[in-house]
Amino acid sequence: MKPFLLLATRAEDYAADAEYQSFLRYCGLAEGELRRIRLEAEPLPTLDLADYSGILLGGSPFNSSDPEESKTEVQVRVERELGVLLDRVVPEDYPFLGACYGVGTLGRHQGAVIDTTYAEPISAVEVTLTDDGAADPLLAGLPASFAAYVGHKEACATLPASAVLLASSVTCPVQMFRVGKNVYATQFHPELDVDALVGRISTYRHAGYFPPEQADEYMERARATVVDQPEAILRAFVTRYARG
């Protein structure tokens, strides 16, 4: 099988490695089957898309909607490189799934309004499939509504004209969309289980997602939730697009 590619942007080694392990686990892949490029550490090399089965984009501390003058040189570079990559991915309808940061990145690329209107604190929310979502192959077998972990400062306020809405929630109308037949983005994190979320809360307690003194409270809330459906999306992505 040709490997999948994970594009990551987390500067903290613990968070980056935990994210990689989460994608390995829920994609059902061995390390040699999921290659990783840490974009915050090195420029994105020229990719031959034919070398891979598909691309996964992990979450990020970056916010696409931040004022340009406030962005670091690294963020500006990463956004430029991802934009160039999507210039190829979207026209080719190449298998792509972006988790959380994918909504801002793919949405912005496609002309969506990305802003802070529908930001969600770190929590589990009820995600509901649209009719198009229920018919989508990546979501086949999932219940009409399921719990998913979220935590983001920005979201898609208006769906781009090129996109099909697949899932929504009361607090964030755009939880998942598709462009073409094979290019996806989720606002929720399909790769997170409770242990990974608790670890991420600890890592990002001073990142502005919540008052740092409330980190322990957020961890306890996470431990009290049951989230076991979204991971199936990752396995379905791998099953559908694995080739080689």
TrEMBL record:
One of its GO terms (cellular component) is cytosol. InterPro entries: ChyE-like, Class_I_gatase-like, GATASE. It comes from the Bacteria. Pfam families: GATase. Keywords: Glutamine amidotransferase, Transferase. Residues 48-192 form the Glutamine amidotransferase domain. The keyword Chloroplast does not apply. GO terms for molecular function: transferase activity. CDD domains: GATase1_1. This is Glutamine amidotransferase.
